[in-house]
Amino acid sequence: MEQETTIGEADIETGRAKGGLWCYKCSATAIPPSTSANGSHTQTPPCSRFDPYSLEFQVECSDSTFCLKKSSEMALNNGEIVRTESRGCAPQTYNYHSYSEGVGWSVQKAREDEAYEHGCTTDAANPAGLKVPSAEHCYCSKHLCNSAASIGGRRSVGERMVEEVVTVAQHTDAMAVIVVFNVVKYIRSLRGEDIY
Fold first, then answer.
1. What is the Cα–Cα distance from 67 to 118, expressed in whole angstroms?
2. Quick check: keyword Glycoprotein in the entry (predicted)?
3. Integer-rounded Cα radius of gyration of the chain
4. Are 43 and 29 in contact (CB under 8 A)?
5. What is the mean pLDDT of each run of 10 residues along the chain (196 residues)?
6. Per-residue pLDDT, 163
7. What is the β-pairing status of strands 67-75 and 81-89?
8. What is the separation of C-alpha 183 from the centre of its chain, rounded to a whole number of angstroms?
9. What is the sign, positive or negative, of the torsion defined by CA atoms of 178, 181, 184, 190?
10. What are the Cα distances from residue 63, in Å, to 94, 137, 163, 167, 177?
11. Which long-range contacts (CB under 8 A, 24 or more apart) does 46-55 make?
12. Per-residue pLDDT tens for 83-140?
């Protein structure tokens, strides 16, 4: 009897394994290499170099059903504003102890699937007047949905991405009109027609 071994299904275009949620991952500063569970060395790249087209910034979230983007800013005494951001898998797992007859105590891992709501939340202002960074946490549950370039308002990450695409599309349409106008103008000038 033959036993078939399946390594895993892969997406032909990206070469990535299918199955889990994929999110962008980067940190406010470069995090030194660490050894993962399978023995490979991984390093979280800094968001200052964020490139949504680079596989270096993409990670499969096996223990999460939400992607996270955290943005924070803090005004310094000299008036300068420091802004940071990080992206990754939203933490949804926790460990707890369980007792079983004959086995004893063991550590179990659980995942809270409905830990977050889609959209963004902003940390409340500090009533004591202390200088603390303000932070905004945005959660989404579609593949690579945490790529929004800037945070503002209380729209969801997905809505921001749509808004960015619409803005790019509007600019592309305007450029197309300008190009067509100039092509027609050029053809008329070749024919000797009055171009104005």
1. 10
2. yes
3. 25
4. no
5. 36 51 88 59 83 92 92 86 91 90 90 88 70 84 83 42 43 66 79 73
6. 43
7. antiparallel
8. 40
9. negative
10. 10, 19, 29, 34, 48
11. 47/84, 47/85, 47/86, 47/87, 50/24, 50/26, 50/87, 52/24, 52/144, 52/147, 55/14, 55/16
12. 889 999 999 999 999 998 988 999 998 888 888 899 998 876 666 666 677 889 999 9
The residue written with tokens 């949804």 in the block is 92
72, 84 contact by CB (below 8 A): yes
Going by C-alpha positions, the residue among 43, 49, 59, 85 that lies closest to residue 143 is 59
Quickly tell me which residue has 């939203």 as its tokens: 90
Which tokens sit at 97? Answer: 């102890």
